[in-house]
Amino acid sequence: MQTMSEVSKKKTVELMIEQERLLSGLYKTFSENFPDHKNFWLDLSADEARHATWLEQLSEALQKGQAFLDQGKINPQALKTFIDHLKSNVRMAEQRRFTLGRAVSLALDLERSLIEKNAFVRFDSDSKYNKAIIQKLISETRAHIARVENMAKKIRSAEQK
Which long-range contacts (CB under 8 A, 24 or more apart) does 153-159 make? Predict the structure, then answer.
């Protein structure tokens, strides 16, 4: 029988997986909306899909006692609110209600939010494999911020010409 804490941790990770899948879908939609920047968005989308897979692996490791999650300030309700926000933005993207600049700005806000929540640093494991997954989640999300910031600079530069 799982304790309330174990159930809460499982739900938290499920929400994190859903969040990554929604980000992947949002970026895929942006790839369709902005064909001149298709590869940029598809790369981000593929990364987010991979992050969801990694979180699924960490979830399995948690269930087996091979990984640990210190929920700390990770609030499942805040994750649900973030997911609702993502769903709303996915719908808007599907309706093509974003300019490229707005899409990039949103992506930057979303990626920064993931880092600020420190969600991935709350995981730990004795397993080198699981530790590597955790580190990759953190480093790739930080790399996303740098890539999106770079795209934002390019857009601002193009707008000034």
Answer: 155/100, 155/101, 155/104, 159/101
69-91, pLDDT tens digit by residue? 987 767 888 899 999 999 999 99
What burial class does residue 103 get, using C-beta atoms within 10 Å of its C-beta: 0-12 exposed, 13-18 middle, 19+ buried?
Answer: buried
pTM over 0.90: yes
What tens digit of pLDDT does each residue of 94-136 get?
999 999 999 999 999 999 998 887 788 889 999 999 999 999 9
Q: Are 18 and 83 in contact (CB under 8 A)?
A: yes
- What phi, psi does 67 have (nearest 5°)? -145, 160
Range of the domain at 72: 4-160
Give me the CATH number covering residue 131. 1.20.1260
Q: Where are the alpha helices (DSSP H) in the chain?
A: 4-33, 38-63, 76-94, 100-116, 128-160
Chain-centroid distance of CA 76 in Å reads 15
Number of domains into which the chain is organized: 1
